């Protein structure tokens, strides 16, 4: 009898458990390493696998939402995590929320049924480079493991601090109040929102009074000067923003021929201008406050947010420079990454990357290869995000703005349904045979 070497997975969170499930249910041996309960990160409390930490909500379940589409795709591919979430769901309106203990127990129960899946409760300090391996240790991995990851990726490609500004959908902007210009050249690279003194001071007052997210106990309350939250900058003085991210120097408003009192700049996130980044607006404001205050800006009254801002500790790699579309390292093709470590945000996004890492690792073990899901799917769009080179790579959650546009313009209220129908049809054609 030929002995088959198991696929190794580091990390028993949502991504690691999903990867293990996808491999084991196809009959291949798996070895899953999890350091709990011998060691806990500052955020983890439960000895169970697949622990949900910050919120028991896994996001919208609505089929016409991007979050709902991702869950539908995961269900279509027989996701363990979504099945466990459905089985342990609690009432939460249109969202999928779970009873945390029951959810983790359901995951462990399903994994424990496989005799060829070994769960090892031990911390991994050295990364075995000779094994077929999935690293799914999560954004709060230990310092020792992070150092080992940096030896694989290069220290310059491993980030420990995540400063994210909001993203908005381009078609939801009222561009009639804005103008294209670049303060440093004649190129029209930025979409600029000019503010009068009254508009600026009104925005400033609301910003100072806004509610912020309290830091988690495991997060140190310190910031880099190069990426200070906009509300921290504002607290330093009335004109600090006007000499920082909202400085009007070098910009002339075309209709008046004058320099505005202050300016908010929007930068394209894609060539088509479907998504725009609010430059310098990384923030710790609560999501509801971000929506309330940023829609006070002229031309953003009816804006749709594709991603809200955040600033928190988060370990992730510069995936576009490091990973192949199958989530393996270019330099070490037997090592794959999964979960938030590779630059996605959110429980379901991490689960999706675990699912794909598991399927791809199994293909490698069998001497095969699988193309990534089409970019018209939610999972394919996430893969494209984490493997497409960009100057300022940042983690992303699923939103319709990262999917290719629909071929024909449709009313906004029908757009989600059209995206979802197209995605699920494409996924059905791609789905690998079990």
Give the radius of gyration: 23 Å
The averaged pLDDT comes out at 89
* Assembly of the depicted chains: single chain
| Named CATH topology of the largest domain | FAD/NAD(P)-binding domain
- Main CATH class of the largest domain: Alpha Beta
Given the C-alpha coordinates, what overall shape results? globular
Instruction: Bin the helical content.
Output: 25-40%
Proportion in β-strands? 15-25%
Q: Topology as H/E string?
A: EHEEHHEEHEEHEEEEHHEEHEEHEHHH
Count structural domains: 2
Strand order of the largest sheet: 10-11-12-13-9-14
Number of strands: 16
Task: Determine the N-to-C terminus distance.
Answer: 23 Å
The unreliable regions are none
Structural class, from helix and strand content? Answer: alpha/beta
Number of helices: 12
CATH architecture of the largest domain: 3-Layer(bba) Sandwich
- In this structure, how is the largest beta sheet organized? 6 strands, antiparallel
State the fourth-level CATH superfamily of the largest domain: FAD/NAD(P)-binding domain
Task: List the keywords.
single chain, 434 residues, alpha/beta, FAD/NAD(P)-binding domain, Elongation Factor Tu (Ef-tu), domain 3, 2 domains, six-stranded antiparallel beta sheet, five-stranded parallel beta sheet, 12 helices, 16 strands, 31% helix
Descriptive notes:
The protein starts with 6 loop residues before the first strand and ends with a helix. Helix 1 (about 15-25) runs parallel beside helix 10 (about 345-365), helix 2 packs parallel to helix 10 (about 345-365) and helix 2 (about 65-75) runs parallel beside helix 12. It is α/β, with parallel strands linked by helices and about 425 residues long. The mean pLDDT is about 90. The protein has two domains: about 5-160 and about 310-430, 3-Layer(bba) Sandwich (FAD/NAD(P)-binding domain), CATH 3.50.50; about 165-310, Elongation Factor Tu (Ef-tu), domain 3 (Beta Barrel), CATH 2.40.30. Strands 10-11-12-13-9-14 form a six-stranded antiparallel sheet. Helix content is about 30%, strand content about 20%. The radius of gyration is 23 Å and the shape is globular. The protein has twelve helices and 16 strands. The longest helix is centred in the last third of the chain and has 19 residues, at about 345-365. It has helices spanning about 15-25, 65-75, 80-85, 100-110, 145-155, 195-210, 230-235, 285-295, 320, 345-365, 380-385, 410-430; strands at about 5-10, 30-35, 55-60, 90, 95-100, 115-120, 135, 160-165, 165-170, 180, 185-195, 260-270, 275-280, 305, 310-315, 335.
């Amino acid at each position: 009898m030929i002995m088959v070497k198991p696929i190794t997975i580091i990390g028993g969170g949502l991504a690691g458990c999903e990867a293990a499930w996808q491999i084991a249910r196809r009959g291949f041996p798996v070895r899953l390493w999890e350091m709990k309960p011998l060691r806990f990160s500052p955020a983890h409390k439960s000895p169970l696998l697949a622990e949900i930490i910050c919120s028991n909500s896994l996001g919208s379940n609505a089929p016409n939402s991007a979050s709902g589409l991702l869950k539908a795709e995961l269900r279509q591919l027989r996701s363990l995590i979504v099945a466990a979430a459905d089985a342990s769901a609690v009432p939460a309106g249109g969202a999928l929320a779970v009873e945390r203990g029951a959810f983790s127990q359901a995951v462990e129960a399903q994994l424990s049924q496989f005799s060829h899946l070994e769960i090892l409760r031990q911390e991994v300090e050295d990364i075995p480079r000779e094994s077929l391996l999935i690293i799914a240790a999560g954004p709060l991995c230990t310092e020792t493991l992070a150092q080992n990851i940096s030896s694989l990726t290069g220290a310059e490609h491993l980030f420990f601090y995540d400063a994210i500004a909001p993203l908005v959908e381009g078609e939801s902007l009222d561009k009639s109040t804005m103008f294209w210009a670049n303060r440093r050249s004649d190129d029209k690279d930025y979409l600029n929102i000019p503010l009068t003194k009254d508009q600026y001071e009104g925005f400033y007052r609301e910003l100072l009074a806004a509610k912020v997210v309290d830091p988690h106990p495991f997060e140190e309350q310190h910031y880099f000067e190069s990426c200070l939250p906009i509300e921290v900058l504002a607290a330093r003085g009335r004109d600090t923003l006007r000499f920082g991210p909202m400085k009007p120097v070098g910009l002339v408003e075309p209709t008046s021929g004058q320099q505005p009192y202050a300016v908010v700049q929007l930068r394209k996130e894609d060539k088509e201008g479907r998504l725009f980044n609010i430059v310098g607006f990384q923030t710790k404001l609560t999501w509801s406050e971000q929506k309330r205050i940023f829609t006070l800006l002229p031309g953003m009254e009816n804006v749709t947010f594709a991603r809200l801002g955040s600033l928190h500790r988060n370990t992730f790699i510069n995936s576009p420079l490091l990973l192949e579309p199958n989530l393996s390292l270019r330099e070490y093709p037997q090592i794959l990454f999964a979960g938030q470590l590779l630059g996605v945000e959110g429980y379901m996004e991490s689960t999706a990357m675990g699912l794909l890492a598991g399927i791809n690792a199994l293909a490698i073990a069998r001497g095969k290869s699988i193309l990534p899901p089409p970019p018209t799917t939610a999972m394919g769009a996430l893969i494209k995000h984490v493997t497409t080179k960009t100057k300022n790579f940042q983690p992303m959650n699923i939103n319709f703005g990262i999917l290719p546009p629909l071929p024909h313009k449709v009313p906004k209220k029908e757009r989600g349904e059209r995206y979802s129908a197209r995605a699920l049809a494409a996924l059905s054609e791609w789905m690998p045979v079990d």
